Amino acid sequence: MTSEPAKARLTFRPRQRLTHARQFASVYATRCKATRGPMSVHARTNDVAFCRLGLSIGKRVGNAVARNNFKRLLREAFRLEQRSLPVWEHEEASGGFDLIVSLYPHEPLELSAYRTLLVELAKTAGRAAERRLREGSP
Predict the structure, then answer these.
(1) Tens digit of pLDDT for each residue in 16-52?
(2) Which of 108, 109, 112, 127 shows the shortest CA–CA distance to 41?
(3) In terms of Cα–Cα distance, which of 138, 134, 128 is closest to 43?
(4) CA–CA gap between residue 125 and residue 99 (Å, rounded)
(5) Phi/psi at 83 (nearest 5 deg)?
């Protein structure tokens, strides 16, 4: 009997979600944003050891069915890439980032494209948020 290392389950739990308007407002107030192609990511440092996701998909992207399909793709991309997303460290403290993903109108892409975009933009926006933290800006 061979023993293979157990694969860690990749889940998307309620604690990994941004749900309240005040959480979204605080991320937007940080003003750390990265945009590429049809996606933009806003980032803010948090005090937990993992990244949390918020989605902001407007009506301009499509009807309710299209918006829900985009949300499913983005949640799945986050779930699969959560271990690749950045974390921050600063003066004996560390944590993850609160990320808000917004989309611009576009034709749906493959899941792999959303995964790549999410990681790249999270790293870029995360660096900006971490820089603000180091400078002492809110």
Answers:
(1) 999 999 999 999 999 999 999 999 999 999 988 899 9
(2) 127
(3) 128
(4) 9
(5) -80, -15
Residue 126 has which token pair? 């995360």
What is the DSSP secondary-structure string of 59-104?
Answer: GGG-SHHHHHHHHHHHHHHHHHHTTTS--EEETTEEE-EEEEEEE-
> For residue 40, what are the contacts with CB-CB under 8 A and spacing of at least 6?
33, 34, 101, 102, 103, 104, 121
pTM of the model: 0.88
Residue 62 sits in a domain whose CATH number is 3.30.230.10
- 8 domain residue, yes or no: no
Residue 77 belongs to domain spanning: 17-135
CA distance 130 to 133: 5
Within a domain: 11: no
